[in-house]
Amino acid sequence: MITSATGGMAWQERQLSSEEDELSEEDSRREPTVEIRLNTVSPEVANLVHYDFTSRKYLPCEDLTLDLLTLPSKIMLKEDLLAIQEERALVQNTTAAHAGHAEGGDDEKLSVDDLEGCEDVISKEELRKLDSQPNPFNFSERVSQTLRNIVTDEMVQTDPPPSTTFCVNVGPSDIYDAYRKDYAKKQALARLLEEEREKAKDKSSSKKKKEPQPPAPSGSEVALLAPVAPLQESLFPNLSPAQLKRLAFTAKILERMVNQNTYDEIAQDFQFWEDQSDDFRGREGTLLPLWRFSSSALTLVPGYWSGWGGRNATLTEGVRGLLVTDLSFSPVFSDLFAASFSSAETLGTEGAGAVCVYSLKNPSHPERLLLHSCGVTCVQFHPTIASVLVAGLCRGDVVIYDVTSSQAIAEVSSSACSGKHLLAVTQVQWMRFSGKLSLLSASQDGRVTQWHVSGNVLSPTDLLTFPGLSAPQAGPAPNGMSPHDLDGNKKSATPSDGTSSRISGKSSFVAPDRVQLEGTATHIALKPDDDTTLLVGATTGAVFQCSTASTVHSLVRYSAHTAPLTALAWNCYNYNVFLTTSMDGTLKIWLQQHPTPLVVMSLGGAVASAAWAPYSSTVVVAVTDEGKIFVYDLFVRRCRPLCVQALPQKKRLLVSSLAMSPYHPVLLVAGERGHLVSFKLSPNLRRPHKEAKGADDQRIREIEVMKIDRIIATNRG
Amino acid sequence: MDQIKKQESTEETHKIIHTYPLLRHSDMPESMRAETIELIVTACEKYSANNESAARIIKEGLDKRYGATWHCVVGETFGMDVSYEMKHLLYMFLGGNLAVAVWKCC
User: Fold this and answer.
1) Which of A608, A618, A619, A615 is nearest to A658 (CA)?
2) Are residues B85 and A162, on separate chains, in Cβ contact within 8 Å?
3) Are residues A438 and A428 in contact, defined by beta-carbon separation less than 8 angstroms?
4) In which domain, by residue range, is A676 found?
5) CATH of B18-104, one of 2.60.40.10, 3.30.740.10, 2.60.40.420, 3.40.50.300
6) Residue B13 has what pLDDT?
7) Which residue did the predictor score with more confidence, A389 or A22?
8) Contact map slice: A 269-308 vs B, CB within 8 A
9) Which one of A158, A175, A177, A269 would you mutate to disrupt binding with B, by most B Cβ within 10 Å of its Cβ?
10) CB-based contact (8 Å) between A182 and chain B?
11) Considering chain A, what is the average pLDDT of its residues?
C-alpha cells in the first residue's frame, strides 16, 4: 500500500530476457521484450509502517516499489544489440561472404537491402531470421502519392524587331570632307537667304507692327522693379556695371550646371521614366512628384520687407505668409511658367506680392522676379508673344510686362486717372483675335473691363458691371444695362421684373437679354475660338455667358453652384464645353446653352481649382483645398476618378491653384506658404485612344473631338 | 606672277577647322535624335582625351533611356558593317576629327 505518491518517480526498465535465463536463447532473440515500469522509490517510504491486524502490531512496509505502469516495448539494451550483430558478422565470415560486409561487430548500418543483396551467400532460413530482427534505426515511413504535373514543351516564335544593316568606313579624310561639304552647303544657303531677304526688303517698305515699346516704369514700383542689380552691386562693390553683366551671365551658366547635376534624377524621371506598375493597376494611375519650386528667393530681395510695412518679420514668417494665387504656363516655351504670389492672407491692399517666372530647368530660383508692394492675384502669359505677360494686383492695377531681358523689364500699368479697378483684380485674360494687344480683366469692384494697349497707355472699356461688394461706380456706366441691373445689390430687385425674381428663386434656364447680374465677377474665360463669347463666373456661384462685341448684352445664366466659383475653363477640343468648380465641393461640366450640367462630380471638399488636360478632351484634373488631387477621364469612367492622391506635405496647408503644362504631362499645384510642386502624370492617366496609335495630329484631334462628343451624346438627356 | 602664287599658297594654308556636331546618318525619331546628339556631345566633351570612357557614358546613357542593348563606336578611323534595329541608328561627326556611331541591336 502506498500512502503517499509524492515521492520521485523513476523509470526502471528491465529486460525480461536477461532475468529469465531459463527461456531458450532463440525465443529471446526473436522477441526481446522490454517492460517499462513506473514505480516509486521515495526515500521517505522507508519510514512507513503498516498495522497488521492478524499479528496486531505495526510492521514495516517491505516491498517499497509499486508498479504503476507497465509498457511492453521493443527497446532493448545496447549491449544486447551489439551481441546480435557480432553473431551475425560471425555467420557472414564463416560463409565467406564478399569482403565489403566484413567490417566487424561495430557495424551498425546493416540494412535489409544489404542483406537481400547477398541472398546467395545467406541461406533462406538465415534471411528469415534476419528479417525478424528489429530495425536498428527507429524507422518510420509515410508516403503518399500526389498528382504529378505533366511537363510539356510549348514554343512560340515571335517576329524579331525589324532590322537592317549599316556599313561605313571612316577616316580623318572622310570627316574633313564631310565638314567641308556641309560648310559649303551652309554658306550657299545663307547666301540664298540673304538674297531673298534683300528682295523682300525691296518689295515692301518696312511696315511692321511692333509690340508695345518698353515704357519707363512709373510710380512706386520703380524701386522694387529691378531687384537683381542692386543686390549684386551690394555684394560686389568693386565691379563695374559691365563686369557685373558678364558676371551675371557666367553665374547663370554655373547655376544651370549645378541645377543640372542636383536635379538630374528628377530630370531623368521627367523625361524617360514611365511607371511600369501601371500595367498591373488596371485603369488607375498615379502622380509622380517632380520638382518643388522654391519661393524663398523672394524674401532675400531687398525691398521685399518694405511691403510688410516695416514689420519686424522673420524669414520664415515671410515665406509662411506667401500665398501662390495663380499659375500660368507659357504657351510658347515648354519649360516656362509664371506664378503670382501674394503675402496677404486675404486679398487686401496690404502686404507684398510678386510675379515669378520659373523654368522647369531651375526650380531653386525664378528666372524673372517682378516685385510689388501689394499682392498679385492673377497672371497670364500672352498666347503668342512669348515674353509678354499680364498681372492683376490687389490694388486694382492691371500691369503688362515684357520679360525679354532680366535687366530691363518693361512694364505698362493701368493708371488711376483712367479708370483702373478700385478693388482687387480677380482674373486677367488676353484676347486672341483682336489684332492689337488687348485683354480682359475682372475685378472685385464688379467691373469686367476690356483694356486696349496703345503705346504706354492702357485704355479701358467697361463691358459688364456686377453689383459687386460695395459697387462704387468708377468709370462710365456701361452700355446696354438697364438701370435696375446696376443699382441692384439685392437679387430680388423689383417685383415687377418677373424673370429676375425667378432666377433668384430657383435654378431655371432664362432667355437671353433678361438676365440680371449678381455678385461680383471672379472668373472670366474667353471662348478659345471666338473672342466675342465670354463666360463670367460670379461669387454667387452663377456663370453668365455674354458677348464682348455687342453693346446690347445677350446673357445666358447658368445656375452653376451654390457657393463661390473657383475655376472656369473651356475644353481644349470642343469649344462648346466648359467646366466649373466651386467651394461647394462639386465639379460640373456644361454644354453651352444648356441649363443643366452634363456631368456633376462631387469631390468631397471645397474645390480649389481644376483644369482640362491639354492632351485629351475628356481628362479633368481637379484639386481640393485640402490638397487632394483628382484625375478623371470621363471617357474611361465617370463615377470614380482614375487617381486620387494627396499632396505630400508636412503641415496642413490650403491649396489655391493648379495648372497643366501644354507640352508635357506635368501638373503644377500651388498653395499657402509659397508651396509650389510639380507632378508627372503616369501613363495610365494619359493613355491615348485605341485608334490614336500612330495617327497624325489631325486624326488625333478628330478622335479627341469624337470622345467628347460621345460624352455629350450620352449625357445630354 | 610671284605675288599671285604667294596669295594662292596663303589661301591653301588658311584652313577652317570645323568642330560643330555634324549628323551624317540617322533614322531615329526627332526627339530621340536630339537627345542622343546631346548625350554624345556631352560625353565626348567630358572625355575628350579618352574615347573609351566617352563610349561607355554614351552606351550606358542610351541603355538607361531607351532600353538595352545599345552599342557605341567612338573613334577617328574605323570601319564597320552592323545590323541594327530599325529607327535606332545614329552616325555623326564631332569636333572635327571624331566619328561616333550608335545603334541598338540585341
Assistant:
1) A608
2) yes
3) no
4) 268-292+579-717
5) 3.30.740.10
6) 53
7) A389
8) 271-272
9) A175
10) yes
11) 73
